[in-house]
Design a protein that fits this description.
Blueprint (H helix, E strand, L loop, with lengths): L1 H9 L1 H7 L2 H25 L5 E2 L2 E2 H14 L14 H7 L12 H30 L8 H27 L1 H4 L3 H14 L11 H8 L8 H8 L7 H27 L8
Antiparallel strand pairs: 1-2
Helix pairs in contact: 1-6, 3-4, 4-11, 7-9, 7-11, 7-12
Protein name: Putative Involucrin
Pfam families: ABC2_membrane_6 (PF06182)
Keywords: Membrane, Transmembrane, Transmembrane helix
Length: 267
Amino acid sequence: MAALHAWRAARVTPLGELNAPPRMTAVALRLAVQVVLVWSLWRGLYAQTGTTAGLSRDQAVTYAVLAVLASRLRELDQYAGRDTVLQHMHFGTIVYWYLRPLPPQRYYALRAAGEQLYGLAWALTGYVICLAAGVIEPPRSAPVAGVFVLSMLLGQWVLYYVMLVLDQLCFWTVRNTAAMLILLFAQNLLSGVYAPLWFFPDWFVTMSAFLPFQATLSVPLSLYVGRIPLSDAAFQLSVQAAWVVVLALFTRLLWRRAARRVISQGG
């Protein structure tokens, strides 16, 4: 029975897309357009130069395209299924999370796992196509590939907790759509989604080093393209693991405090 509940929770958001073929078509088109635009942009930026900020043209293009593909790991439309924490708080239905057979924290984790596995299918498909088309470079060696996979796993783990913290803030703010958008923008900016962090000023890079955001994406992709050498991989992996532990303890505390604030509003 527990396994059945887990399976049902994990497939909540992916089913929203699998049962709507037009939505899947839109996702495929958007992903293809993003890859083409990013590829064109970075090739154009390097048209008159060989190396910038320690990156060659092929490294920069590979980083940017992989960042687009990695964004699909958690970029699912939860709003269509009205299953975001923000929506539940607004409509007063968050109380049902506490009445289900699964605890809310476990339901949230299972749902996130299902979303990431579904997103992984999209990302891997895009990766294989881009690799075959010569859009991106392959890993430089088997050790680099192995370290990248491990770092990417830790990075997604950190990202899960970062997104969880953002959702948990809804228990204290209730109506915080604008704040959520600002925080999501900050997360994407500081994690290197929009551009590699080495293109930013030194003070910006130093500041981001004390935050968990770059551990979600910048570190794995930097290892892949060779911007971070294998000799520094152990340190970077240990920093990622430390953020996992810190954020896990912090979100556990927030879950306990959030349960005391559950009320029925709206609806």
